[in-house]
Structure formats: C-alpha cells, structure tokens
Amino acid sequence: MTNHAGFAAEDAAAAAAAAVTPPSQAAAAAAAQAGKHFSTCKKAAAAGNMDLAGAGVTIPGFLLDSMRASSPRHAKLAAGADIDDWLEKHPSALAWFESVAAAANGKEIVVFLDYDGTLSPIVTDPDRAFMTDDMREAVRGVAKHFPTAIVSGRSIDKVFNFVKLEELYYAGSHGMDIKGPTAAASEYHNMKKGGAAVTRQPALEFLPVIEEVYQSLTAKMASIKGALVENNKFCLSVHFRCVDESEWGVLDAGVRAVIEGYPDLRLSKGRKVLEIRPVLDWDKGHALQFLLKSLGYEGRNDVFPIYIGDDRTDEDAFKVLRNMGQGIGILVTKFPKETTASYTLREPSEVKEFLRKLVKSKSNGTKG
Ligand SMILES: O=P(O)(O)OC[C@H]1O[C@H](O[C@H]2O[C@H](CO)[C@@H](O)[C@H](O)[C@H]2O)[C@H](O)[C@@H](O)[C@@H]1O
C-alpha cells in the first residue's frame, strides 16, 4: 500500500501551485467550480494555506501524520529510496508505450479505469467532477476494441452519471457493487449467447448499517463548515477538502466517534477524504479478479489487463496484477510515491492520450 506521505503530496503540491496562480485566474476558476457550500475551500486555497505541516498545526489523531505528510517538504519515499531510482522503476506509460504494446502483443487486452483523478481531474466539489467529452470519446474508443471497466469508490449510479457509457462494466463502491453492460450493449461476455448478467454485491448485508451511519455522520458533520458526507451506497466518504485545517481534528474525532459504535466498519484515508466501508475481504483487486473471471479469462495466460488509477485503493488492483504476473498497473501521479504499479501517467490528459494510443495500436496488430 502507498504510504500516507507519498499519497498526500500531490494534493498539497496542487494547493501550493494554486497559491502561485495569478489571482484573477484563480478566482475565476474557483468561482466557476465552487458552489456556496465551498466558499471555505476557495478561501483556504486562495490563501495557499493548505500546507498544514508548513503552518505548524498540530492535531491529535490518525489524520495528523497524513496531514503533516501533505507538505511537499515532508513528502518522501520509503527510507533509502531515491527519485531517479523510482522514475526508472515506474516509467511513463506514454514514453514507454512501445514496450507496453510489445508486452501486450498476441494477448487480449482488458482495460480497468478508476474515475476520480484518472478520467476526471480532482476538483473541490465532488458533484462536479465531470469528465470531458474528449475523454468520454477516448473511453468509448477503447471499449469498442477491448472489454473496459470503470472501478470507482463512488456508487455505480453516480459514476455512471459522469461516464454515461452503457457498453462498460462498472464496479462502484470500491468494487463492492459490480454490474456488467446491458445485453444490447454487451460485446464481450456471453450474455448475447444467453449467459447470465454480470453482477456482484458482496456487501449487501451492510446496506442498512451504511445508511444508518450516513445519517449519523451527516448530523455530526453539519456543524463543520465545508464538510461533506457522500453516500456511495456500500461505503461513505467524508470530504474535508473544503474544511479549514483548524477544524480537521474536530472532523477526525467526530468521524471516529460515530464509527466506534460499528466494529464492522473501517476507516481509511483517500485524497482529502475519509472513507468508511465494511470490514470485508473485498476491494478493487477482488473486483478486477471477478471481472476477469466473468469475461472468461480466469487461468488464461493470453490476457493482458491494464489497470489505471491514482488512489491508494487502486493499489489493491495493482497488487493483484503484480501477483498474477500479467498485464500492467499504471499509477496516475505527478509525484513519486510508493506503489505496486509498473508505470505512471501524470494526469488525466495523459490517460486520454494513452487510451488513444492503445486504440491505434490495435489497428497496428495487437490482438484484443
Ligand atoms: O475510486 P475513485 O473513482 O477515484 O473515487 C475515490 C473518491 O473520489 C471522489 O473524491 C475525490 O474526488 C473529488 C472530485 O474531484 C474530490 O473533491 C475529493 O477531494 C477526492 O477525494 C469521490 O467524491 C469519493 O466519494 C470517492 O470515494
């Protein structure tokens, strides 16, 4: 799993970059993006004061290390690791595209795509994390040639509303809600031949408890300006991107106070978000395995899964691929961080370029 230090660096650096953006541009971008709810967020970003470690804020609790690590000054790889070594071990999937294509040659490519931070840039308002039409076209193009799945922390309904492509497989709620394409849109599995629809919900029994905790967290967070609780059906997200850092400790304590009463739920941290989900042996890696099996690739060595993601939760899928010794994981990041992925891409625009190249390489002979 990636360490908190590496993981959090990107957010902090983005905040630092925002601070040096000309004020007029920054204000226009913020105004276009943020609703009333996010005024706190704009204020913090404009002041460039999201660098908690730099500000010397000390907050007790499990977020503290992670917040401290958010500073680029503190961001580091594991002890002994060096950046050149990291770049050599995790080269750009674009610069090394020919190597990727050569490794996939003669194999059937299956594409797995995370959503936030991979297909859409990270924005302050989670409800406005739209993907561009260009990106949608790139994904549509890929899905024409290869089975393609979206694997997201969001609920299926939410992520579908952003992606809007019926021909894809969707694994929402961090893989705990899986749905294949409709029969009409399905190209790749055996539904057309009368096979069963691809569907899996391993956390079904947790639905009532998740709903209960959603209500409690919403009430608890109501007094924290900028906090947002998102219901992702089988898991919950408590966003603190727009919460003033002086309130992060209160938010952390409030979330933990609610979760303490639910030993079947666990808490983890994503990109300026706390995630609450069932204690269940199921993650994005299991979703990847389930989908490969549903597509008939279990035990076959002529399959080449490509998984692209930016989040700590995507590491579970990268590990599965590493253990299988098949396919590649591609981490979307601008900064070195610990990862099991083999390659990197810097941002969603590079993901789009990579997807386009993949389609082009198909017409040049890669089996898929
Ligand atoms: O697995 P993913 O598709 O990457 O989903 C992970 C979380 O993504 C969303 O939050 C993140 O993106 C937001 C929009 O850019 C951003 O405002 C937030 O700070 C990020 O953490 C989503 O809202 C969460 O529910 C997902 O769990």
UniProtKB/TrEMBL annotation:
Cofactor dependence: a divalent metal cation
Pathway the protein contributes to: Glycan biosynthesis; trehalose biosynthesis
Biological function: Removes the phosphate from trehalose 6-phosphate to produce free trehalose. Trehalose accumulation in plant may improve abiotic stress tolerance.
Catalytic activity: alpha,alpha-trehalose 6-phosphate + H2O = alpha,alpha-trehalose + phosphate
Enzyme Commission number(s) of this protein: 3.1.3.12
Family from the record: Belongs to the trehalose phosphatase family.
Signal peptide: none
Species of origin: Leersia perrieri
Protein name: Trehalose 6-phosphate phosphatase
Gene Ontology annotations of biological process type: trehalose biosynthetic process
InterPro entries per the UniProt record, alphabetical: HAD-like_sf, HAD-SF_hydro_IIB, HAD_sf, OTSB-like, Trehalose_PPase
Keywords annotated in UniProt: Hydrolase, Stress response
PANTHER family cross-referenced by the UniProt entry: TREHALOSE 6-PHOSPHATE PHOSPHATASE, TREHALOSE-PHOSPHATE PHOSPHATASE 3-RELATED
GO molecular function term, any single one: trehalose-phosphatase activity
